[in-house]
Write a structure and sequence with these properties.
- The protein is α/β, with parallel strands linked by helices and 391 residues long.
- It folds into two domains: 24-217, no CATH class; 222-386, no CATH class.
- Helix content is 41%, strand content 23%.
- It is built from eight helices and 20 strands.
- It has helices spanning 2-17, 222-246, 248-255, 260-286, 291-323, 329-347, 352-373, 379-390; strands at 53-54, 57-60, 63-66, 70-71, 74-77, 80-83, 86-87, 91-94, 97-100, 105-119, 122-135, 138-139, 143-146, 149-152, 155-156, 160-163, 166-169, 186-187, 191-195, 210-214.
- It has an 18-stranded parallel beta sheet that branches.
- The protein is globular and about 85 Å long.
């Protein structure tokens, strides 16, 4: 029963914040035209007679093998994952080893975190973090990855954005007059890579342009990412522990009785409070007598901005744990860490990450302001007492 709850909660966490990360900015992205007879169909003809799993699939095991087509999204946490069938939606996979076999076909995006990722089949887009990423099959659109080694032995239909040490291309065979599109390594769009040193790229391997950025002079070094992740994790965990110590019911009362009216109030406060505090800061700063108070007001605003994202993540975690009746603090802490990591990854996405961060900031400030400024009537407590009396 606990494993089932963990799978469902992991799904909800992913759905609440949505998808993985491009690590390198996708500036000046060029649409590349590819000629192929392959089409992205919901269910291939060879699989029409097979048993199809309708809806999303959640797997939380040591070794996972997916042999049956899934008409939905796939969520997996495991040690070794093997995909040998068609996935109708996105695949979210956290594992040590990921193998997408020749019959593996991910119709949408592959979001993967693993030491070794081998793609012999097909995927639409790939977003990954790991040690080794090997493409033996076909990727319809883009690859965005942080890895040590990228092996391109098949075709990538559009652009590659990668932070890595080595890129290897499989050479085009001279013995075949018309080799298949996946028998050698090609990138039909642009190659954008960050590395310590410039990598030798075969002339026929990249159809578009190749852009190299030295990681020695680049601020987007992996260590910076790790510091960023560690910072947001520490703040979220400390704030969560403080909320348990000071007022455990504060988040419960704000989130678990969430209504449309309360949601609008929280969003409204999240927008108005920073504006009001900024205006008050300017006014107080201009008055000589109260100018010193402006520093205090500025500190309050800075603290709200600093903790706002963590408050939002704690609220999401509280909703999930309440919905699935998770009461043990150890499990709550574990899911908070997972949610925080997913949010951090999503915040790296250009444009989308900015919007997501702003929404998290607005909700966090609004949630804190609502808890401090608005007193709720204890309707829920009354209802609980009435229910107990009826029982």
């Amino acid at each position: 029963m606990l494993k089932k709850k963990i799978k469902i909660i992991f799904l909800i966490a992913l759905l609440l914040i949505s998808v993985f990360t491009p690590i390198v900015n996708a500036e000046n992205e060029v649409e590349a035209e590819t000629t192929t007879t392959d089409q992205v169909n919901p269910i291939s003809e060879t699989q029409e007679t097979e048993t199809i799993k309708e809806g999303d699939e959640y797997l939380f095991q040591d070794n996972v093998t997916v042999d049956t087509p899934v008409d939905g999204n796939l969520f997996i946490i495991a040690n070794t994952v093997t995909i040998n069938s068609q996935i109708g939606g996105d695949a979210f996979i956290f594992a040590n080893t990921i193998n997408i076999e020749e019959n593996g076909y991910i119709l949408s995006n592959l979001f993967a975190s693993a030491d070794t990722i081998l793609v012999k089949g097909r995927a639409y887009n790939i977003y990954s973090v790991g040690n080794t990423l090997t493409i033996d099959g076909f990727v319809y659109r883009d690859i965005r990855s942080i890895c040590n080694t990228l092996n391109v032995n098949g075709m990538i239909g559009r652009n590659v954005f990668v932070n890595c040490s080595t890129i290897n291309f499989k050479e085009k065979p001279d013995t075949e007059e018309t080799p298949s599109i996946t028998s050698y390594g090609t990138i039909q769009g642009d190659l954008n890579y960050i590395s310590d040193e410039e990598i030798t790229v075969p002339e026929s391997a990249v159809s578009g342009e190749t852009h190299f950025t030295s990681s020695k002079n680049n601020t987007t070094d992996i260590s910076n990412y790790m510091y960023s992740l560690g910072g947001i994790l520490v703040v979220a965990i400390i704030l969560w522990l403080l909320s348990l110590w000071i007022s455990p019911k504060l988040i419960h009362n704000t989130i678990h009785s969430l209504t449309l009216r309360k949601t609008l109030q929280i969003i409204g406060l999240g927008i108005l409070v920073p504006i009001i505090l900024t205006l008050l800061y300017i006014i107080i700063l201009l008055i000589p007598i109260t100018s010193r108070l402006a520093i205090l007001l500025l500190c309050v605003l800075a603290i709200l901005l600093f903790i706002s994202t963590s408050v939002t993540l704690i609220n999401i975690n509280a909703m999930i744990c309440h919905k699935f009746k998770i009461t043990q603090n150890l499990y709550k802490l574990g899911f908070l860490i997972v949610i925080t990591i997913i949010f951090w990854l999503l915040a790296l996405i250009p444009y989308v990450g900015i919007i997501l961060s702003l929404l998290a900031m607005v909700w966090g400030i609004g949630s804190v302001s609502y808890s401090l400024l608005i007193k709720e009537k204890p309707d829920e407590n009354k209802n609980k007492k009435i229910d107990k009396n009826n029982d």
